[in-house]
Specification:
Length: 306
């Protein structure tokens, strides 16, 4: 019995020491190694204007493969390619679904998604998960759209604009930062917290100020929990959509959990929940609609694994 008590005490002591040690968290990727980033995004948007309510649901799924090309100017240089990509939306007016796995489809969007999986592009990301440069993805979309023989020349510019808005270089950078800009700038121990601000411009013109806490560690992984505040900033709250410019006034919260590889800093698993409400108004309203506002209630659930 005394041996069992002694062994238990030793094990508890080792765990206590391990959790009390400060560790570094950040992206430390090895040149030539490959990393996977699989994401599933579910969005529900409820809009209300002039007493009329409209619900929109959207699903975006992708499997991205990254290969480390080494470090350039203190940035991780990665070669990226889509292994799979799909997009679905549902509203009272329409229902659409496009996928790179629809190999026999003659739908032009399915064809574009399938074609995009045959190509790659590059981007740079630092140890704290900030993206500094994305190279080639906008040109890639332009190329596959222009080469498509099904889409008419009149439609190509519209399709290109829409796809770049969702999957272009700027949107890609912000999507990656939303997931990876989570690391502290200095070593931390279990119980420590740090705060990071992230730009959400690819979804709507808002920001998240998130406080991350290191909850526990084991031999292979670090586990984080986070809670954040979503808000808009005056003067930086405009977005153009459908040829019109809107001003947003939003607030909300963000909660998330992360399981991170201690050696590489790569995300093994994560769940991110965002809930936002507020309104959008015409920046320059059409005549007769100066006082009209569109109420918004928006929720995101993002699941990540590798």
């Amino acid at each position: 019995m005394n041996k069992i008590v002694l062994l238990t005490g030793i094990l508890l002591g080792l765990i206590s020491c391990q959790n009390g040690d400060k560790i570094s968290l950040g992206l430390n990727l090895e040149e030539g190694e490959k990393y996977n980033f699989n994401s599933a995004v579910e969005m529900v948007l409820i809009q209300e204007m002039m007493g009329q309510e409209m619900d929109i649901k959207m699903d975006m799924n992708s499997n991205l493969n990254f290969e480390s090309l080494g470090v350039v100017d203190n940035q991780n240089l990665l070669l990226a390619s889509y292994d799979f990509i799909s997009y679905g939306t549902e509203s009272p007016q329409m229902q659409m679904f496009f996928s790179s796995e629809e190999t026999d489809s003659d739908d032009p969007m399915d064809m574009l998604f399938k074609e995009i999986t045959k190509h790659n592009f590059k981007f740079q990301i630092n140890q704290q998960g900030r993206v500094s440069k994305v190279e080639g993805v906008d040109e890639l979309w332009s190329s596959v759209i222009n080469d498509n023989q099904v889409i008419s020349d009149v439609e190509k510019s519209q399709v290109e604009s829409q796809l770049k808005e969702i999957y272009g270089g700027e949107s890609f950078a912000q999507t990656i930062e939303t997931s990876f800009a989570i690391y502290p700038e200095k070593k931390v121990k279990v119980g420590d917290s740090w705060t990071i601000e992230t730009n959400l411009q690819n979804n709507y013109p808002a920001f998240i100020e998130t406080t991350y806490t290191l909850k526990k560690i084991d031999a292979d992984y670090a586990y984080l929990e986070a809670i954040g505040e979503i808000f808009t900033k005056e003067g930086d709250n405009l977005m153009e959509t459908g040829g019109m410019t809107f001003e947003f006034d939003l607030e909300g919260e963000n909660t998330s959990t992360y399981k991170i590889n201690r050696d590489t800093g790569w995300i093994a698993e994560a769940t991110i929940n965002q809930n936002t409400k507020g309104k959008m108004m015409f920046s320059e309203a059409p005549e007769g609609m100066e006082d009209q506002a569109i109420k918004m209630n928006l929720s995101f659930v993002i699941e990540i694994d590798n």
